[in-house]
Write a structure and sequence with these properties.
alpha/beta; Glutaredoxin; 5 strands; 33% helix; 25% strand; globular
Length: 115
């Protein structure tokens, strides 16, 4: 079963090096981020996609994420949360702001990743 993983200082590196990963960048108290988390979690629970894609969420204001922020300096340019990124074998191939399953599926398709 595919689930939305909560990432922290001990898990983000291994997650991003997965063959296929979708990273959601969020922040505590972000209403749109919380709505996207619920929408995605509900979709993963109801649709139960059989996929090797990993889905993870990281809170930018969580403690001990300095290494994540240094190694992923592109996050300095994020102006809208939630922000999503697709990684293949540790390399970022796509990123976009906002929420929505349809947007997610479109970006997966454009990255040649099927659910």
């Amino acid at each position: 079963m595919v689930e939305l993983e909560t990432l922290d200082s001990n898990s983000w590196k291994e997650f991003l090096s997965s063959p296929k990963a979708v990273l959601i960048i969020s922040k505590t108290g972000c209403i749109s981020c919380d709505a996207w988390t619920r929408e995605l979690s509900d979709w993963l629970d109801s649709e139960k996609p059989s996929t090797s894609i990993r889905f993870g969420k990281i809170l930018l204001d969580a403690p001990r994420l300095t290494e994540f922020k240094i190694e992923n300096q592109w996050i300095q340019n994020i102006s809208i949360l939630p922000h999503n990124s697709i990684f293949i074998d540790g390399k970022q191939v796509c990123q976009w702001p906002g929420k929505g399953i349809e947007k997610l599926q479109n970006h997966l398709d454009s990255s040649n990743i099927s659910l």
